[in-house]
């Protein structure tokens, strides 16, 4: 790819980013108005039980699917749910929202686990106040949370490592993109992935970057990484928007010899798999996670004992089974 083509590709990515951010801003503004009204008016629903779900970020496909699962199960069981989230991934804002949720005195809170004593102390405070806390997507195992519902992230990371190390390439340098170091799920996936590839002959991890749950940032990090480490032959992303972002970054960098692997089942990821720019993705089931979290709380509200860990299935999506799954939610638990 010559310099002019690279410049045009980069400008296309920047224009797409600008339009995407504008859309997100308008959508988020409407959601913020709704959140303020909910916080001012209280529950505002007929249910005897009130649950607050604090998502990691607004308008993220993974969390939208998880919220859909929560909504469907809550409607079925007659549980009222409020949805709160920062506009962009921001651990400090998630902590502030958790503190506000405790002050609002719901019956339970669904949250993403975040590493750190301040977050654990707030979870403990909630439990001591009689507010059940269930972590989803990412755990906070050192806290007094009632339960964790979600992917076995260590095992999912190992599976991603097996996909990389078990492919046609038998060696190579790897670039890794994670969403955030504060998220327990990202650290566990990285740990599982590292345990496989570093024990395989000829594989090394050259660099690790952060996308902050941004497809555009994943693309930018990829370009920088491939420039600094031209020996990289494999790129992997450990959160949902990483793989399509990495694929765009690989294209902008003018590389055609880089394999890309990712997490989750987004339309952009499916399109990239179909186009051959992403090799495979590990698919979680966020909708099921939301459903199971509400069902667990319903059993808890009824006085039943509940498991402190409930893992949901995950599987692999690639070119061979791209058209074989209806919604990409997976067909069973990976080994």
UniProtKB/TrEMBL annotation:
SUPFAM superfamilies: Periplasmic binding protein-like I. It holds the Pfam family Peripla_BP_4. Its main location: other. It comes from the Bacteria. Keywords: Signal. It is found in: Cell envelope. Residues 53-304 form the Periplasmic binding protein domain. The keyword Cell division does not apply. The keyword Cytoplasm does not apply. InterPro entries: Peripla_BP_I (IPR028082), SBP_2_dom (IPR025997). Belongs to the bacterial solute-binding protein 2 family. This is Substrate-binding domain-containing protein. The lineage of its organism: Bacteria, Bacillati, Bacillota, Bacilli, Bacillales.
């Amino acid at each position: 790819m010559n310099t002019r083509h690279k410049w045009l590709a980069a400008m296309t990515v920047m224009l797409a980013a600008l339009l995407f951010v504008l859309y997100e801003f308008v959508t988020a503004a409407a959601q913020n108005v709704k959140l303020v009204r909910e916080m001012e008016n209280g529950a505002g629903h007929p249910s005897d039980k009130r649950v607050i779900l604090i998502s990691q970020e607004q308008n993220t496909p993974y969390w939208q699917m998880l919220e859909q699962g929560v909504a469907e199960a809550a409607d079925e069981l007659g549980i009222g749910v409020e949805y709160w989230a920062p506009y962009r991934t921001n651990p400090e804002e998630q902590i502030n929202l958790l503190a506000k949720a405790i002050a609002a005195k719901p019956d339970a809170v669904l949250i993403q686990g975040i590493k750190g004593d301040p977050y654990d102390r707030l979870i403990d405070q909630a439990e001591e106040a009689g507010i059940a806390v269930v972590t989803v997507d990412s755990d906070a195992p050192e806290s007094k949370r009632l339960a964790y519902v979600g992917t076995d992230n260590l095992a999912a990371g190992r599976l991603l490592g097996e996909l990389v190390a078990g492919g046609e390439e038998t060696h190579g340098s790897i670039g890794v993109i994670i969403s955030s170091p504060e998220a327990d799920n990202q650290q566990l996936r990285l740990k599982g992935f590292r345990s496989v590839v570093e024990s395989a002959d000829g594989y090394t991890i050259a660099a690790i970057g952060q996308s902050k749950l941004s497809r555009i940032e994943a693309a930018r990090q990829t370009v920088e990484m491939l420039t600094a480490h031209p020996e990289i032959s494999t790129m992997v992303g450990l959160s949902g928007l990483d793989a399509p972002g990495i694929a765009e970054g690989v294209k902008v960098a003018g590389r055609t010899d880089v394999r890309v692997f990712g997490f989750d089942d987004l339309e952009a990821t499916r399109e990239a798999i179909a186009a051959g720019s992403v090799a495979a993705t590990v698919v979680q089931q966020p909708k099921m996670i939301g459903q199971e979290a509400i069902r667990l709380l319903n059993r808890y509200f009824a006085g039943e004992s509940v498991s402190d860990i409930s893992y949901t299935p995950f599987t692999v999506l690639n070119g061979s089974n791209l058209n074989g799954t209806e919604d990409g939610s997976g067909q069973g638990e990976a080994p």
